Amino acid sequence: MVYISAFIVGGIICVIGQILMDTTKLTPARILVIFVTIGAILGAFGLYDKIVEIGGAGASVPLPGFGNSLAKGAIKAVEEKGLIGAFTGGITGTAAGITAAIFFGYLMALIFNPKTKS
Questions:
Q1: DSSP designation for 117
Q2: Domain that holds residue 29
Q3: H/E element holding 107?
Q4: Residue 44 counted as domain residue
Q5: How many domains are contained in the chain?
Q6: Residue at 117 is within a domain
Q7: DSSP 8-state code for residue 62
Q8: Is the confidence at residue 117, as pLDDT, over 80?
Q9: Residue 116 falls within a domain, yes or no?
Q10: CB 63 within 8 A of CB 91
Q11: pLDDT digits over 45-76, tens only?
């Protein structure tokens, strides 16, 4: 059942993104920013945690999950360090994920032969 709920929640997030791309003139980059911002706002109010409880990885892996991680990191750092934590907390909270993405992207570029689109 965990896999089904993750699939449904992640699928809903993807469907929303696809609908936005098909029905509006928003670019994928702007939709990315909207998703991260919505995740950060919902995370700041503690609402995104409820979505993660239902959807698990289906909610924590997509872009709103990244925004949620940024918000959580910033809130935690503000509580510990004061105002300066608002600037450093998001970076600290998401550093492991960003590092993993860069490392595995580089690793795949070494294993496979990357080409530019033509």
A1: -
A2: 2-111
A3: helix 85-111
A4: yes
A5: 1
A6: no
A7: S
A8: no
A9: no
A10: no
A11: 989 999 999 999 899 888 899 999 999 999 99
Residue 79, in any domain of the structure: yes
Which residues of 5-114 form beta strands (DSSP E)? none
- pLDDT tens digits, one per residue of 10-43: 999 999 999 999 999 999 999 999 999 999 999 9
Residues in the chain, overall count: 118
Reduced to 3 states, what is the DSSP secondary structure of residue 1?
coil
If one counts every other C-beta atom within 10 angstroms of the C-beta of residue 54, the result is: 12
Amino acid code (one letter) for 21: M
- List Cα–Cα distances, 82 to 45, 68, 76, 78, in angstroms: 19, 20, 10, 4
* Cα 2 to Cα 112: distance, rounded to the nearest angstrom: 33
Comparing C-alpha atoms, which of 27, 45, 39, 95 is closest to residue 65?
Answer: 39
Q: What is the pLDDT of residue 97?
A: 85
Closest Cα to residue 77, out of 67, 92, 94, 97? Answer: 92
Q: How many CB atoms lie within 10 A of CB 74?
A: 22
Q: Where are the beta strands (DSSP E) in the chain?
A: none
Q: Tell me, what's the pLDDT at 115?
A: 76
- For 44-74, give the DSSP string: HTT-HHHHHHHHTHHHHSSHHHHHHHHHHHH
